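Hi D.,

Good news: the full-assembly prediction came through. Inputs first.
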Amino acid sequence: QSALTQPASVSGSPGQSITISCTGSSSDVGGYNSVSWYQQNPGKAPKLMIYDVSNRPSGVSNRFSGSKSGNTASLTISGLQAEDEADYYCSSYRSGSTLVFGGGTKVTVL
Amino acid sequence: QVQLQESGPGLVKPSETLSLTCTVSGASISSYYWSWIRQPPGKGLEWIGYIYDSGSTKYNPSLKSRVTISVDTSKNQFSLNLGSVAAADTAVYFCTRGSKLYYFDYWGQGTLVTVSS
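Then the structure:
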């Protein structure tokens, strides 16, 4: 099954805001409010950062926010910090009760 | 707190079956959604499948013919069998819990499985 589309890399300076996009179709991102975002540091398991498009789990900084418009979901990191440098993956429910990930985005803090 | 731990062989021969077990503590295996996810070296995440309700399953269509996920409620474990493996199945395999079907709120540390003769 085809993956969701994310940019390979996004960069920003400390304090800036960056946005990562995640594009799918009406069968996944656009059809359901079931997008989640994960942060993965090298050699570690991914960590849930956003669920249900825009909800933050307890303990996740409010500098992370999520949104969706049509078939594209977005993760915004405000007040970028060095510790935010990591890989980020989106995921969505897809019709047929399956799940699909994006290809991942490497965030670099300049 | 909730903890998940993968276990199983780190090396599997081509054409054989990859078998992994995830031991869960701090949560009942009879509740929630339990998934397997893999990540080939240097690549992205791929959802393999999930089990819920102590036995209902759903698999990635691209792997469906080779995958079986099962649960052992007496041991609070769930397992992955992936048949007819090839080098492309070399990956870090993660077991996860989802409070809902479509997100993963707890992850195991992952275990690297290499397919090689």
